[in-house]
Amino acid sequence: QVQLAESGGGAVQAGGSLRLSCAAAEYSISKFCVAWFRQAPGKEREGVASIDTDGTRNYAESIEGRFTLSLDSAKNNLYLQMNSLQPEDTAMYYCAARVGRWCDFRDDTYIFWGQGTQVTVSS
Questions:
Q1: In this structure, are strands 117-122 and 10-13 parallel, antiparallel, or unpaired?
Q2: Backbone angles phi, psi at 117, to 5 degrees
Q3: Which pLDDT value is given to residue 80?
Q4: How open is the CA angle 64-69-72, to the nearest 5 degrees?
Q5: In angstroms, what CA-CA distances link 27 with 58, 97, 113?
Q6: Cα(63)–Cα(84) distance, rounded to whole angstroms?
Q7: Tens-binned pLDDT, residue by residue, of the chain (123 aa)
Q8: Which residues pair with 47 in a beta bridge?
Q9: In 3-state terms, what secondary structure has residue 93?
Q10: Most exposed: 43, 47, 70, 112, by fewest CB within 10 Å?
């Protein structure tokens, strides 16, 4: 099974930036559909961004234009560059993967999950 580990979270002020990393082990991350999800306290988990096995990126409307995915196949890492962060972006961010070519944001279909990294944005 693929093992995922997130890093890069932290506390920033509104308007700031962070880059999250999802490091994969055991298998090449590019062979999986991989997505970033986030969950704020008291809210349901929501999909943020995903990358299909052919490299197609998909973004949630709430973050489109502010967040960008990039894949480093050599390092087996998937990055989420987050710019213009807002307090509503505060959440635990998770990297998840599943077998299959095409991604979506149905979190119950993802079988591999990391432990998460906390992002806190203050106003």
A1: parallel
A2: -140, 135
A3: 98
A4: 170
A5: 22, 11, 14
A6: 10
A7: 889 999 999 999 999 999 999 999 988 988 999 999 999 999 999 999 999 999 999 999 999 899 999 999 999 999 999 999 999 999 999 999 999 888 999 999 999 999 999 999 999
A8: 37
A9: strand
A10: 43
Q: How far apart are CA 60 and CA 63, in angstroms?
A: 6
CA distances from 21 to 38, 42, 80, 90 (A): 14, 25, 6, 17
Token couple for 100 = 């299959």
Q: List the strands of the sheet with 18-25, edge to edge.
A: 3-7, 18-25, 77-82, 67-72
pLDDT at 26: 86
| CA dist 72 → 23, 30, 37, 77, 91 (Å) | 10, 9, 19, 5, 25
**What is the distance between the alpha carbons of residues 98 and 36, in angstroms, rounded to a whole number?**
12
DSSP-derived letter for residue 100 is S
Q: What is the pLDDT of residue 1?
A: 82
From CA 82, how far away is CA 85, in angstroms rounded? 7
